Amino acid sequence: MGFSSVGLSGFGGVLPFARRMLVEEKRWMTAEEFNAQLGLCQFLPGPNVVNLAVVVGKRYQGLLGAIVAPVGLLAGPLVIVLILALLYDAYGSLPLAQGMLRGIAAVGCGLLFAMAWRMGMAIKDKAAFLPFCVLVVAAIAWLRWPMPWVMVGGLLLSGGVAYWKLGRK
Prior knowledge:
The radius of gyration is 19 Å and the shape is globular. It has helices at residues 2-9, 15-25, 31-43, 48-91, 95-121, 126-142, 147-167. Helix 1 (2-9) runs antiparallel to helix 2 and helix 3 crosses helix 4 (48-91). The longest helix has 44 residues, at 48-91. It has seven helices and no strands. 83% of the residues lie in helices and 0% in strands.
């Protein structure tokens, strides 16, 4: 039911709602656990939040939870999107509809930024890992390097720093 409410809360991105439900409302995960699980889910194929639903469902209810959590996340939005597709087909060219869609996109950007900020605040060793954010933005946005190469390089560099920091404890 938790993931059903998350799925029905967002339009175009529910990760901020999933974080709020898992970390702040239900307290099923700590902020650090959420960051770690989301990092794992980003390397798995498929949408990150669906992967997260599978992981959390499996963690609390086994195989049945791993099946039901993503179904709960996707069933309601699927019905809504099908209805919206019919409405868009009929009324999508109207200026009012175009303005509403631009407003929804702006809200989604704001929610994504707020979630990224909260996730960043949960990182204990910010000074050690903050340069990686700058390097990724520089490599992809400014230098236009291919994302797969940036991901592999970032994984190797950040993994080395994490290994070095964990080895010191």
